[in-house]
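Quick log. Single chain, no ligands specified.
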Amino acid sequence: MNQRQFDYRRIAQGYAKDRPFLHGQVMNKVREAMNLSQNYKNGIDIGCGAGLSTKALRMICDHVIGTDISPEMIQAASALYDEDGYQFQVCKAEEIEATAGSIDIVTAAGVMNWVDETRFLPLLHTILTDHGLFLLYDFWITDQMEQNSAYTDWWHHEYLVQFPKPKRKEERWTQKDVGKYGLQLVLQEEYTTTFEMDKEHFIRFMLLQSNVIAQVEEKGRDLEQVQTWFYDTLSKFWDEERQKLVFQGYNWYITRAI
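-> predicted structure:
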């Protein structure tokens, strides 16, 4: 699946409104893992989408630049975060323009699947300060809903049948993978968390998943029919109450070796 598929107004608007801000929890983990006593000064968030991950980086960094290849995403992010400390630009991760040794932290949330690391990692080594941090992280909704096994059955026997997972790079990086670019893999951590949604929010969120994007934007399935399918199949076991959905995620901490 090509990253260009995310360059759609519907996706940009949905990212801005309906994606859960779990990124903030990630930054709290960074503070603890890196024992931060003060903010980083300059940071770049690659594949920023509508800016949620850039907003998170701003929690631990004084000035942040969000980059994305999608003009629609950058337009949405610029409108949402039009304030001091933020800057946004249309740019590929492999083509970031920054002075050598000027960036204290670079973050990438759920985007490295689409990036050519053989071009990006040498650039990362160049722009990071000594011991500067590259935080590679992602989180995703799972097949688990607290106290509702019917959701798990729906996920595997209905959702994934209608919307199979697109093929993507999911290899776990090792020190060998990054060491040849002058980088040090410091820590890899995994976690689970929950987020409450009502059924309507859940459906809006699921319409932003790559599984659904591949079927609607790429293969031409009717969006209204897809929405109806979600509502009809979920209504068999989900009433109007908010439910706790289980998310899984990881953080990889990579520093510039000297």
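The longest strand covers residues 128-145.
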